[in-house]
């Protein structure tokens, strides 16, 4: 019989921890949002059911390297799961998602008593009761070795502190992992160097993650291993799977320190990264700097009021928006920005980022960066230019090179939205060239350029019967992407014929609308709709969803969709149906129930599948049909029910900050339904007060003093003291700073936002 801590007690402990953290925040007089983060939010996941599919990520915002305790086996995407009992090591990671897996990883692990280096033999039992997991610091007691491990990061380096017992046989294992690695122990310098070539989901050229490790204690033993066998006669080894073990005697409570850094360029660059970022700092100095970096980044948004749970959820979500894409650039000896290119295998000048999928993140993550952190997105845009120059295409999933997964050409949205929201100082003409190239050509793999491009250009859609999977989803996303190219072409004053071409293509969504069902439906090459048609069938014509999810993917022309669905009243009823239909499904395309289906089924919200991205904007579409109070209700309902600051705190894959960005935006009281325009569609704020310090130094204050669990409906809104009746706010108005003051109440105001003059942008209404 296995005894487990009752969930109610577990939740009480989490809540108590939250209360204590909040009390500390208030008592010491400083604002410390990083202390409200639960880095374990979303870690109680498995392939069959995602509650986030996250791992406790120890790093700094957008750091090149991240770290995590590793409970899973080597190469397993679920590196850390909350239900696990043992830790196998502490892994440097760049993993954006368990489904994408990792690249450039290696592992460090303390061991005592016996020289155990195999991942199963060295694994140690641990308890969450003796675990401290913060964004900038991690500590855990490894029971089988009687060792406490602590680590704290910089962008490209980290420090470890191991507290050992009295033992004549204390060891540190450095595992460079399989699929090609190198290790060298240099006892005279208390140093280990190595590299790993392990990469998943793409085939980067000449890929190596070089690492250097310094130990502050002399080695009494030094060995290398190949696979599961110790090597007797060499401290330098190249093989499919290499590693090293160093040993020494330790006294009770003795602390052994490691300084570690890595580089995608060379050992010399790794040494430079270490000396530059760690310098003469001890462990505590690095920890203070990492904490300060998180504080500076997260303090840009200060929430007041609400419950402890809401504050912890908010800042835990904000934390998740600040990792990916991660930096893959470094500073050389001349302090020039350089990067390893996965396309050429060379070291080249300029910025580069990796580890993100635009199918997920174009929706809210990148718009969030454009509002709150445009400086880092400017670097990311420069990185995209280098992707195009070096690889010939913009990535749609980078891991760290082109990964062949997901659909769409949503780099167009990411590029256009940044420029249209004011980012400047990079070669937008080169990026526009990249967008046009991607929009009109198939790539060498299906996930770059546009699969089915010739069909799309000639027929206006990707046909159902030409053996191109998920064709309706591709068509709908291509049409939206064409809209963003149209918007950018106008802003760049391109030839009118070119502008008109993409304007026309943006209407291609109309080809798939089936008047008989009022939904989007796959269409054959001869113009007939696919048959039979089951709107509850996942996959097939759609991507990780069904027709009820994808029929709303007309971000840029909701009015056009309203018209197709028979007008505002019918449109609102159709939106309502998403929540009132039973959570039935047809999984036959996949052959089994995928986790996204299961997450919709158990959510008790009908066909609304918030755990996956295609439908996440749908709640905000009531604003386009004169029923904004329904947006207010369902946004609050989703925040309350689908997010908690707990290990099972998400309702599906977190996905590189996208699902978290939905929460952060929704808590602000607005959401970017259509990136590529400058409008945010209104919901209702979650907190009585939020103060946002923009990168330009202006302050935006969002006030809702009557806000509560009962008072969730907007009665009126004032912008800078003047009554504001529209269902959206403009990006450039927000950048001026000022105040949005919401008057909240327990009943919906069904008069506000009802007229068409209040509706957000639609292509058909311009």
From TrEMBL:
Gene Ontology annotations of biological process type: carbohydrate metabolic process; glycoprotein catabolic process
Chain ranges of the Glycosyl hydrolase family 92 N-terminal domain: 36-263
Signal peptide feature range: 1-23
Gene3D superfamilies: 2.70.98.10, alpha-1,2-mannosidase (1.20.1050.60), alpha-1,2-mannosidases domains (1.20.1610.10), GH92 mannosidase domain (3.30.2080.10)
Cofactor(s) the protein needs: Ca(2+)
A Pfam entry, by short name: Glyco_hydro_92N
Record domain Glycosyl hydrolase family: where: 269-746
Family annotation (SUPFAM superfamilies): Six-hairpin glycosidases (SSF48208)
InterPro entries: 6-hairpin_glycosidase_sf (IPR008928), GH-type_carb-bd (IPR014718), GH92_a_mannosidase_put (IPR005887), GH92_N (IPR041371), Glyco_hydro_92 (IPR012939), PNGase (IPR050883)
A GO term for molecular function: carbohydrate binding
GO cellular component term of the entry, any: cytosol
Keyword Signal: yes
Ranges where the record places region Disordered: 743-766
NCBIfam families, per the entry: aman2_put
Subunit structure: Monomer.
Name by which UniProt lists this protein: Alpha-mannosidase
Species in which this protein is naturally found: Rufibacter radiotolerans
């Amino acid at each position: 019989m296995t005894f487990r801590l009752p969930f109610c007690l577990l939740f009480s402990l989490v809540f108590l921890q939250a209360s204590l953290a909040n009390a500390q925040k208030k008592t010491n007089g400083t604002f410390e949002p990083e202390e409200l983060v639960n880095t374990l939010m979303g870690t109680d996941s498995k392939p069959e059911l995602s509650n986030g599919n996250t791992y406790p990520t120890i790093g700094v915002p957008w750091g090149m390297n991240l770290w995590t305790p590793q409970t899973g086996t080597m190469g397993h995407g679920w590196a850390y799961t909350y239900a696990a009992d043992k830790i196998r090591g502490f892994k440097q990671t760049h993993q954006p998602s368990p489904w994408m897996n990792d690249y450039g990883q290696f592992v460090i692990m303390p061991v005592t008593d016996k020289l155990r280096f195999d991942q199963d033999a060295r694994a140690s039992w641990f308890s969450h009761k003796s675990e401290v997991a913060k964004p900038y610091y991690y500590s855990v007691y490894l029971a089988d070795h009687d060792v406490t491990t602590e680590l704290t990061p910089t962008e490209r380096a980290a420090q470890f502190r191991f507290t050992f017992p009295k033992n004549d046989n204390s060891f540190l294992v450095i595992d460079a992992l399989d699929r090609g690695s190198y290790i060298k122990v240099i006892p005279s310098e208390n140093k280990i160097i190595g590299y790993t070539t392990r990469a998943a989901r793409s085939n980067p050229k000449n890929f190596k993650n070089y690492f250097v490790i310094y130990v502050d204690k002399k080695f009494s033993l030094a060995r290398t291993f190949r696979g599961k066998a110790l090597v007797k006669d060499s401290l330098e080894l190249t093989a499919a799977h290499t590693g090293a073990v160093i040993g020494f005697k330790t006294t009770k409570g003795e602390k052994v320190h490691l300084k570690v850094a890595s580089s995608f360029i060379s050992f010399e660059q790794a040494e430079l990264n270490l000396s530059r970022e760690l310098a003469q700092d001890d462990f505590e100095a690095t920890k203070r700097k990492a904490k300060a970096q998180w504080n500076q980044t997260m303090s840009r948004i200060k929430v007041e009021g609400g419950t402890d749970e809401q504050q912890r959820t908010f800042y835990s979500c904000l934390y998740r928006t600040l990792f990916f894409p991660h930096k893959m650039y470094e500073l050389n000896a001349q302090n020039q920005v350089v990067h390893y290119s996965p396309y050429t295998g060379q070291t080249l000048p300029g910025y580069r980022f990796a580890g993100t999928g635009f199918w997920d993140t174009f929706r809210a993550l990148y718009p969030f960066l454009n509002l709150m952190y445009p400086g880092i997105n400017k670097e990311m845009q420069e990185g995209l230019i280098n992707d195009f120059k070096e690889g010939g295409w913009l990535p749609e999933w980078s891991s760290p090179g082109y990964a062949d997964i997901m659909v769409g050409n949503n780099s167009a949205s990411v590029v256009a939205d940044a420029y249209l929201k004011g980012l400047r100082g990079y070669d937008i003409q080169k990026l526009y060239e990249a967008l046009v190239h991607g929009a009109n050509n198939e790539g060498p793999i299906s996930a770059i350029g546009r699969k089915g491009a010739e069909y799309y250009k000639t027929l206006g859609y990707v046909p159902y019967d030409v053996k191109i999977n998920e064709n309706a989803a591709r068509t709908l996303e291509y049409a939206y992407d064409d809209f963003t190219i149209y918007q950018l072409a106008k802003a760049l004053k391109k030839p009118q014929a070119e502008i008109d071409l993409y304007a026309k293509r943006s209407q291609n969504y109309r080809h798939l609308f089936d008047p008989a069902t009022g939904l989007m439906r796959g269409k054959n090459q001869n113009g007939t709709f696919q048959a039979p048609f089951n709107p509850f069938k996942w996959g097939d014509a759609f991507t990780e969803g069904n027709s009820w999810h994808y029929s709303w993917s007309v971000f840029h022309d909701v009015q056009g969709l309203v018209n197709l669905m028979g007008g505002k009243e019918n449109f609102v009823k159709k939106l309502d149906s998403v929540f009132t239909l039973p959570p039935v499904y047809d999984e036959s395309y996949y052959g089994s129930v995928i986790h996204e289906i299961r997450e919709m089924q158990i959510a008790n919200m009908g066909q609304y599948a918030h755990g996956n991205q295609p439908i996440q904007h749908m709640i905000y579409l009531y604003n386009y049909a004169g029923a904004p109070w329904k947006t207010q209700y369902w946004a609050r309902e989703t925040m309350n029910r689908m997010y908690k600051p707990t290990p099972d705190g998400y309702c599906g894959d977190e996905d590189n900050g996208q699902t978290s960005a939905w929460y952060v935006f929704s808590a602000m009281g607005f959401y970017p339904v259509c990136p590529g325009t400058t409008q945010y569609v209104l919901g209702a704020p979650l907190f009585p007060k939020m103060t946002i310090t923009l990168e330009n130094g202006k302050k935006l204050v969002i006030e809702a003093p009557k806000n509560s669990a009962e008072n969730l409906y907007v009665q009126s809104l004032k912008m800078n003291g003047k009554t504001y009746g529209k269902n959206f706010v403009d990006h450039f108005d927000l950048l001026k700073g000022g105040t949005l003051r919401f008057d909240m109440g327990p009943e919906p105001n069904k008069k506000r936002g009802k007229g068409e003059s209040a509706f957000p942008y639609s292509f058909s209404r311009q």
